[in-house]
UniProtKB/TrEMBL annotation:
It comes from the Bacteria. This is Selenium-dependent hydroxylase accessory protein YqeC. InterPro entries: YqeC. NCBIfam families: selenium cofactor biosynthesis protein YqeC. Pfam families: YqeC (PF19842).
């Protein structure tokens, strides 16, 4: 079962996917890219904010359609972006063009500085209107950890949950963040497929706790899926 199947998404219909949240966005984006390529599809990886370039994927900063088509014909999977601060890529904003020339477009829509859980800031996430689907990712390793230690922008998370920075993250907290239009569902428009990926379910205890989170989300009509990546898969370097 590849990542598209795991998330019950059809890349024929959900062709442009934006990933938000924390705890495994990049790994998931490249897992989707690899699976789409294995299905014979061309893929553009890009960002609406900032990402580190993948060392094994051809990079271009030229969004002209003919150029992108030529790159895709040669490489199959490419990254579109311009190098900015701290060697990170900025997006070019040409998601519509990307959808015209590639079968699948994958967009990283916010950052979490490798923290497993976050509540978006006022300017986040940046979900392009051309997106057909959104995947909100959270790391289950946040469970049982103090908000101040484990979350990106912890003060924002504490305010959202009505907790102190010293209090620990619970299953209900993760479900509340992912389900909220101020959290994982922020800027998700009607008609966009929405999925939650509960990542780092790599021990029996975390898997059991992840099932609790998934049930809480199911009560709100939200599909959630458990996942974990082995060490060499983290960051997606092994797939390209």
């Amino acid at each position: 079962m590849d990542m598209w199947e795991k998330l019950e998404l059809d890349p024929e219909r959900v062709r442009a996917v934006t990933l938000v949240g924390g705890g495994g966005k990049s790994s998931t984006m490249y897992a989707l890219a690899r699976a789409a390529r294995d299905r014979g599809k061309t893929v553009i990886v890009t960002t609406s904010t900032h990402i580190l370039p993948h060392p094994g994927i051809f990079l271009t900063d030229n969004p002209q359609p003919d150029h992108l088509r030529a790159c895709l014909a040669t490489h199959g999977v490419i990254t579109l972006g311009t190098l900015g601060r701290a060697d990170k890529l900025c997006g070019t904003g040409e998601i519509g063009v990307c959808k015209e020339v590639a079968d699948v477009v994958l967009i990283e829509g916010d950052g979490a500085r490798v923290k497993p859980l976050k509540v978006p800031a006022d300017h986040e996430p940046v979900i392009p209107p051309e997106s057909d689907g959104v995947i909100a990712v959270a790391g289950l390793d946040a469970l049982g950890q103090p908000i101040g230690d484990i979350c990106h922008r912890p003060e924002q998370v504490a305010t959202f949950l009505g907790k102190s920075l010293e209090e620990s993250i619970t299953e209900a907290d993760i479900a509340a963040i992912l389900a909220s239009p101020r959290g994982g569902r922020k800027c998700v428009k009607e008609g966009m497929a929405f999925r939650c990926l509960l990542n780092k379910a790599d021990t029996p205890a975390l898997e059991a706790q992840g099932q609790v989170v998934a049930r809480l989300l199911a009560q709100k009509g939200i599909r959630a899926y458990l996942n974990h990546y082995i060490q060499e898969e983290r960051g997606g370097a092994c797939w390209f």
